[in-house]
Amino acid sequence: MDLDAFLKRCADVGALGAGRLGRAAEVLEEMWGRDDVTVVLAFSGPAVAAGLSPLFEDLIRMGLVDVVVTSGANVVHDVLDARGWMHLNLGPSNVKGHGRIYDVHVPEEAFEDFEGFMWEVLEDLPEKVSVSELLREIGARLESGFLRAAADEDVPVYCPGILDSMVGLHVWIYSQDHDFTLDMVADLHSFADIVFEAEELGAVVLGGGVPKHFTMGAAMLREGLDYGVQITMDRPETGSLSGAPFEEGKTWGKVRDDAKVEDVIGDYTALFPLLAVGVLQRLGLIGCGRER
Predict the structure, then answer these.
(1) Exposure string (b/e) for 88-116, b if CB count within 10 Å is 16 or more?
(2) In the predicted model, is pLDDT for residue 290 greater than 60?
(3) Which residues carry out catalysis?
(4) DSSP 17-60
(5) Closest Cα to residue 28, out of 196, 249, 194, 272?
(6) Shortest CA distance to 204 belongs to which of 215, 218, 193?
(7) The predicted structure's pLDDT at residue 289
(8) According to the model, what pLDDT value does residue 242 have?
């Protein structure tokens, strides 16, 4: 069967993880199938290192993502991918001359190349820019990746934790002998405007952490999300935001009481491609043949 049929069978089963995945497909179908829903794609963790950037790029170019919120690490790895540096699967052990994300490895030379690229970008910018303006300029200089798609399609990319990354490191080094300021507050203004203007607001949350909190915190400005799909490996018992179900978000005004939401417990690097492709088939946006 194709992935759409698989997800419908999961919904029919209705129980445990299969049921969650099937219901998530139904929420995502409505979120992507309506023109009046502003969709935020928020992802933390090793999304790009795990190979999801082409999928994100396609979703942005198809008009299914209106806002991206991510981590500095995903920005860095999207740049590396676009500049031709391979993320290699060499097993969960250290390999000399490489940086490691569990079983994914990146040559150290890639980060030297990234440093030169960042300085070229920074030297062409005015003395004060927002993070989203910086990321738009970065994306415009790449040949592929979600940053390039976002720049082309006028989709803002927010990265509230950007200082905790190699982007932030090079911005700090550059600012030591250049008059340059990264305006973190400006992004809150522009994101708030998007939230206020949204007829309905939906979020696809992969992982947790700062991107999830930034997204749901902004949703409080309009009394919460109307739609939400979350895929995470974290659990709620530790009190972490990353493991908090959408139901808990209702107590904070981050999710509306009548919102259509679903939490899926699992590895989003495996589950989100299955979910996304199945829903794209359901909506008739792609066929059931051998798509990339």
Answers:
(1) eeeeeeeeeeeebbeebbbbeebeeebee
(2) no
(3) 254
(4) HHHHHHHHHHHHHHHHH-TTEEEEEEE-SSTTTTT-HHHHHHHH
(5) 272
(6) 215
(7) 58
(8) 86
Type of residue found at 161: G
Structure tokens at 255: 């999710």
Give me the mean pLDDT over the 59-66 stretch: 97
Q: Please report the sign of the dihedral spanned by the C-alpha atoms of residue 64, residue 70, residue 74, residue 78.
A: positive
Residue 57's region, left for phi above 0, alpha for psi from -120 to 50, else beta, is: alpha
* Length of the chain in terms of residues written: 292
pLDDT of 105 strictly over 90 = no
In degrees to the nearest 10, what's the CA dihedral of 46, 48, 50, 56? Answer: 120
Closest CA to 46 of 2, 102, 128: 102
In angstroms, the CA 252 to CA 94 distance is 42
